[in-house]
Amino acid sequence: MLRPLPLLVLALGACSTEPPAVDPPEPTLRRLTQAQYANALHDLFGEELTVTDRLEPDVPTDGLIELGASITTISPRGVELYESAAFDAAAQVMDDPAWRAEIVGCEPAGTVDAACAENFLSEFGRRAWRRPLTSDELGVWVGISGTAANELGDFWDGLEFGITGILTSPNFLYRVELGESDPDQPGGYRFSDYEMAERLSFLLWNSIPDDELLDAAEAGELTTRDGLLVQTERLLESPRAREGLRTFFRDYLELYEVEHVSKDPYLYNHWSSTIGVAAEEETLRLFEDWVFDSESDYRDLFTTTRSFVDPELAALYNVRAPSREGFEEVAFTEAAGRAGLLGHASLLAMHAHPTLSSPTLRGKFIRQTLLCQPLPPPPAGLNTAIPEADEALPTMRDRLMFHMQEESCASCHALTDPIGLGLENYDGIGRYRASENGATIDPSGDFGNGEYEFLDALELGQQVSKHPDLGPCFTSNLYRYATGHRESFGEAEAIIQLSDDFKGRRYRIAELVVDTVLSNGFRKAGAIQ
Amino acid sequence: MSKFPTRRSVLRGLLAGSVVTVGLPPLECMMNASGTAYAGTVSGFPTRFGLFYWGNGNVPDFWNPTGEGFGSDWTLSEQLIALQPIKHKISVLTGLAVKVPNELPHYSGLAGILSGAPGQTTGDESTMALPTIDQVIAAEVGQNTFFPSLETSVDGGVGYSHNGPHNVNAAEESPHALFNRLFGTGFTLPGDTPIVDPKVGLRRSVLDAILDDANSLSARVGAADRARLEQHMDGIRSLEMRLARMEEDPPNLASCNYPTEPEQDYPEIDGRPQLEAKSRAMCDILVMAYACDQTRVASHWISRAVGNTLFPGAPAGHHNLTHDEPGDQPEVRAIVSQVIAEYSYFLQALDAVPEGDGTLLDHCAILATSDVSLGKTHSLENFPLIVGGSANGFFQQDMHYHSSSQENASRLMMSLTRAMGLSLASFGAQDGRVTDGLSAIEV
């Protein structure tokens, strides 16, 4: 059961100092991601709707799908796919008398009933476009629905065209958040009430606003701090926020890749076509628990012995399955040699090769993704082969030694390999192993220059959890995800403040989310050039 | 000036209580009186372009043919031996190089060969700064067909066909969906009368209205978003045009027919994708898409740059093998041979379709290439380049052309654009830019 979060008190507690001003970049349209598109259609028509995944693909850019959504476009093929997806959804509902009656809310008086169509399309359009339609806009869709009804001899068949139009319009497919003049800041811009409604709902629910949120926008409440806080609290307390924030974490750690990871089935007989999805679920469940149930310290995600596994993962981890099917909580004992996110099969399998582990990829993930320390790209013209395993070089540590010995390799690999070698007790899919090719694995190391030394994966997790860059990196990523852009120089101060507050709030994630929403970075817009 | 009605004209029509349907001019621009001939080609059949791409390159020492010149003066190498049945209709080019700076492993070569320009990078991800060769061509020749271009993907990736930065034409990865898209509702065999469906006109009025929405939005956004919306609008217009053509008689092409309907699904077997079956199912469809003149531009993406696909028979992922396999890399070579066998299948399938006095392949130029030459070192010299088909007599056949000076590979792209009837002043940008084609391989 979800406990009400003590958000109001905390958020007001931080109110004593004025939040730092920001100078954000020009706002850009964000294309709905595949998940946002599906969630929006389910919100509009009901969970029973079948939504195709044959849509313009999500393209991660600069580490996040949500950043890719701000710069990618809709291709000719995408136009075609969105059109057929919208017709398909509209037809499912309009072909079902009970369903369409529930959605449309009026019975047509004849083949053409402009009043009934207008009544419905105005409500539907407001939800779909996250703002009321102008009378001209409404007139177009009512007109097209009427013409189609007349031509096809059926009111409902006609309405399919109006619905499809609304769902294929750029006003649906992009998040139109362009800002308005800010009365509190002459010459500056803020996001309008309706724009704030969708910023909030996409961040917290990964979907369109509900009617209550749109009503709050209509009442002008979302451009006030207090009104915004009330709605933020309401949305966060809804079970839907779990899905919303899981989506952030999935995007941040690129967990959508796990199900596509391919592994040699002969080498790794614990890997299967279903285990990728399960491994992703484990990581997301633990995160969900961290945000909403145990309300724990973000840093402890890297040291906790708690996790959630299904029987297939339990077998991979060599622990007793806590249930016959589905996920249950498990506590890893010391003998399991596993703790925290860095012991999750999802991350270990993703940052490895089809037939091998990869200390380089794992070290890169920790440094670049978790700590936001940029790494130079590998040089293009080098021989990157590593020596084969043999009696002289039985372990990965032995085979990677030349990375450290050759100057051209060491400049980068010194930043990644010593960290990633700490996870060598986990093979290419994350199964524990004490030895490799008959030699005992040495999982000790440091972060370079003797800093953050560790003896094994468990100590590596502790070092990551204590690393001063961990909290600020998470803060920046949430900020990027929430705002849809990589932070500019003009936002640096606001992010430092958020990250300091995150620390002050003992790294509780839900509180960082609230602080981010209330920050100027989320509420103020840059000028359109 | 748009050929299509504005929202106002549609609204006027709507107010009058009937839908406005505006017929497009018939496609006489591309046909002679008998309905078969295409202006500007010797055969009377249009020239088609294809791109056949695979990731991670080759092993040049086992790729380069023996001997130079024509016919019996040259013989196929180990990795190209699958092309023997079609050797008389290909040109193999060796000794050319991608000239953009090799700064991003794999992506520099990918962007360099396909767009002639360096890639554009943010963080770990890269995109094309310029449109890829298929879209450069489609922008000119795509207007006359049902689909300006088609993209198909064997390994499930989205491919690399770009209209510009961050604008990928995501490839179709399901052979069955490809079949339905091309030969399902809306397809008419030559000689049959198109079914006139009132929904088609209604769909066009919806597209027209959303085009107006895009225009209004465009007036409110910044320059970058305006460019994005412009590309979106191109897509809307392209679909409108296709709908308009649905009601017209199809081109009268004798070899046009339904391809074999593919399987619903091609599941992995033992953790390995069914690359051969999937690629062939897709190529069979592409062959008929050309034969029916549904498109004149296609790209077929076998696998990704840096792709780690487990090829049938391979002991590790492809990309790992390119870097980790020692010596002469027999496992990598076996993968390249599998890929070239699929290229050969595609060319032979095109050659099996008669068109006029020749075959469909004679009216095609199908470029096969990758993102690097030797994957192990990400080399951009001695780039893998093959052209299948003479493009209506434009290219030499049965030729091994070897450049001894690592000529700029963009020159082949320039030749391909010319083969397709384009007259560009240049192709590519910066170090990749060229103004001349490769006259040695042209007839």
For the terminal residues of chain A, how far apart are their CA atoms? 48 Å
Q: Report the strand count of chain B.
A: 14
User: What is the helix fraction of residues of chain A, given as a range?
Assistant: 40-55%
Described by the principal axes of the CA atoms, the overall outline of chain A is globular
Looking at the overall shape, the CATH architecture of the largest domain in chain B is 3-Layer(aba) Sandwich
Mean pLDDT score of chain A, rounded? 93
Tally of helical runs of chain B: 10
Which value, in Å, is the CA radius of gyration of chain B? Answer: 22 Å
Indicate the structural class of chain A: mainly alpha
Our Rg estimate of chain A from Cα atoms comes to 26 Å
Which strand order do you get reading across the main beta sheet of chain B? 2-14-3-13-12-1-9-6
Largest protein interface?
A-B, 73 and 79 residues
CATH-level-4 superfamily name of the largest domain in chain B: Alkaline Phosphatase, subunit A
Q: Describe the biggest sheet of chain A?
A: 3 strands, antiparallel
Under CATH, the topology of the largest domain in chain B can be stated as: Alkaline Phosphatase, subunit A
Assembly status: heterodimer
Instruction: Tell me the distance between the termini of chain B.
Output: 39 Å
* Tally of strands of chain A: 9
Describe this structure in words.
The complex is a heterodimer of chains A (529) and B (443). Chain A has 529 residues and is mainly alpha-helical. Among the domains of chain A are: 30-175, no CATH class; 267-287 and 295-466, no CATH class. Chain A has helices at 7-13, 34-45, 65-68, 76-94, 97-104, 114-129, 135-152, 155-168, 170-173, 193-205, 211-218, 225-237, 240-252, 275-293, 311-317, 345-350, 359-370, 396-399, 401-405, 407-420, 457-466, 470-483, 492-504, 509-518, 520-523, and strands at 30-31, 174-175, 180-181, 189-190, 306-309, 328-331, 435-436, 439-440, 524-525. In chain A, strands 3-4-9 form a 3-stranded antiparallel sheet. In chain A, strand 3 (180-181) and strand 4 (189-190) form a beta hairpin. The longest helix of chain A is centred in the N-terminal third of the chain and has 19 residues, at 76-94. Mean pLDDT of chain A is 93; it is low at 1-16. Chain B has 443 residues and is of the alpha/beta class. Chain B has 2 domains: 29-189 and 261-441, Alkaline Phosphatase, subunit A, CATH 3.40.720.10; 195-247. In chain B, 31% of the residues lie in helices and 14% in strands. Chain B has helices at residues 7-15, 107-115, 133-141, 175-183, 198-218, 223-246, 275-291, 318-324, 330-351, 410-419, and strands at 48-53, 69-70, 90-97, 119-122, 125-128, 150-153, 162-164, 167-168, 297-301, 354-355, 358-359, 364-369, 385-388, 399-408. In chain B, the strands form 4 sheets. In chain B, strands 2-14-3-13-12-1-9-6 form an 8-stranded mixed sheet, with helices on both faces. The model of chain B is unreliable at 1-37 (pLDDT under 50). Classes of the chains: A mainly alpha (529), B alpha/beta (443). At the A-B interface, helix 4, helix 7 and helix 8 of A face helix 1, strand 8, helix 5, helix 6 and helix 8 of B.
